[in-house]
Amino acid sequence: MKCPFCSNDETQVVETRVAEDGDFVRRRRQCIACEKRFTTYERPDVTFPAVVKKDGRRIDYERAKLLGSMNLALRKRPVSTEQIDSAVERIEEKLLNLGLREIPSARLGELVMRELKKLDKVAYVRFASVYRSFEDIDEFKTLVDEVRR
């Protein structure tokens, strides 16, 4: 593992911990040259389905993109990073369990909305209003009424 501070190739593992859910391993490492410490995470390398956009294009699934859109919806909302990470993990688990090679972006968006609805109603409405491309205020009002129930 290359040191992110000095780019030295020699580092040693100081501490190893398995995450509570067992999905990844966290390692604290120390550079042999500059003696600075940093953290790495090991996850299994799995293949997610390609995302089929509305216009028919196929793009690779990107965790960072999913996390970014969720963080945007959850901006300034009282939801912890751990809760967001858990929601992303659940979405990814569902994607893998589907066993599909491709998934329509609409279906992925529905999975995201389901998780956001559990986390924070305001974030859910934010995401849904952009994702569903409401044409008028009545559609928005219907969504808000649905959330209130």
Helix content: 40-55%
Query: What sort of overall outline do the alpha carbons produce when their principal axes are compared?
Result: elongated
Q: Please state the average pLDDT score.
A: 90
Number of separate structural domains: 2
Strand composition percent: 15-25%
Count of extended strands: 6
> If helices are DSSP runs of H or I spanning 4 or more residues, what is the number of helices?
5
Q: Indicate the radius of gyration in whole angstroms.
A: 20 Å
Low-confidence stretches: none
| Strand arrangement in the largest pleated sheet | 1-2-3
Our measurement of the CA-to-CA distance between the termini, rounded to an integer number of angstroms, reads 52 Å
Core attributes:
single chain, 149 residues, alpha+beta, 2 domains, three-stranded antiparallel β-sheet, three-stranded mixed β-sheet, 5 helices, 45% helix, 19% strand, elongated
Question: How would you portray this structure in words?
Answer:
The N and C termini lie far apart (52 Å). A three-stranded antiparallel sheet has the order 1-2-3, with no helix packed on it. The mean pLDDT is 90. It is built from five helices and six strands, in the order E-E-E-E-E-H-H-E-H-H-H. Helix 2 (81-98) packs antiparallel against helix 3 (105-119) and helix 4 runs antiparallel to helix 5. By secondary structure, it is of the alpha+beta class. The radius of gyration is 20 Å and the shape is elongated. The chain has two domains: 11-42; 50-148. Strand 4 and strand 5 form a beta hairpin. Helix content is 45%, strand content 19%.
